[in-house]
Amino acid sequence: MISFASDNYASVCPEIMHALMAANQNHASAYGADPLTDEAVKVVQNALETEAPVYFVFNGTAANTLALKSSLRSYDSVICADTSHLHTHEVAAPINACGVKFLVKENVQGKLRPEDIRLAYTEESRWGRHSTRPRLVTISQPTEFGTVYTLDELQVIRQLCDELDLLLHIDGCRLYNAADALGCSLADTARFADVLSLGGTKAGLMFGEAIVFFNEALAEGFEYLQKQGLQLNSKMRFGAVQFKRLLEDDLWHRLASHSNAMAQRMWQGLSKHDGVKAFCPVETNQLFVYLPADVIAPLQEDFPFYTYDETTGMVRLITSHDTTIEQVDAFLQRFHQLAAG
Questions:
Q1: Residues 286, 164: one domain?
Q2: Residue 105 and residue 81: Cα distance in Å, rounded?
Q3: Which of 48, 80, 184, 285 is 20 to 30 A from 177 via CA?
Q4: What residues make up the domain containing 288?
């Protein structure tokens, strides 16, 4: 099956699979007390240019939820965009686990604007103890629309958080794509965070995400939260070794650069048709575009992808580390056949 529905559909990167097979030898101490996990932590820290604590978990919902759980009290609130994955697609897991309130502001092409952060803070904090305490801002890099916060934009948000005594969480499930789009290192775009959810599965891993506590005080007691949150992998080495390989020899960059390039190739082909418009700039491996209504269903039969808004014909197309030029060109050929009638 050729799919442009999600990078979660993608295969495991061959280099990652090889690393898993190499790790599958003999016995090793459980629960992360093994040499491979120690090595992986150091590799993540080196890639992010930090000595921050690093914890490996199974999935993105857990990474985001436990990152917030470690940072907040039940009387706190979270400022986010209305497209935030934590708000829209995690079955209220952060609310259930943390008991916190979400202060939701309208996104601008996926981004949360500094003025809206300030407004949410002011509106909620004016009542003192009769309302929640705004405590944390969460953003996605890249955003849920595939757009990228520039380093200057991140700096402004960081400065505002410092001014208002707010923590900053970055959901970095596709951080590699953002770094490639910006032409910067992972450390450059991650360093603004107090706590980072570092992606793995969408980047070519079989499973696994990581939580990185740049603000080390937030990691106090996390080893207990990890266990209580059902995220302590007894065979930790198999999650850890995947991150070790991903971040060695710039593998992450090669994979992200390829998936971004495939998205650009797809957009260049689609944009030749007068009936196609982009909802926002195509900056990473996600495309949100308006297609002619009559081509969507037959095109989805051959190439699964999601319709984001049925009323407008906006669809989401995502390329992956294993997307090929031939697959993109086959999609474009079929689209132009359908569009020509």
A1: no
A2: 5
A3: 80
A4: 253-339
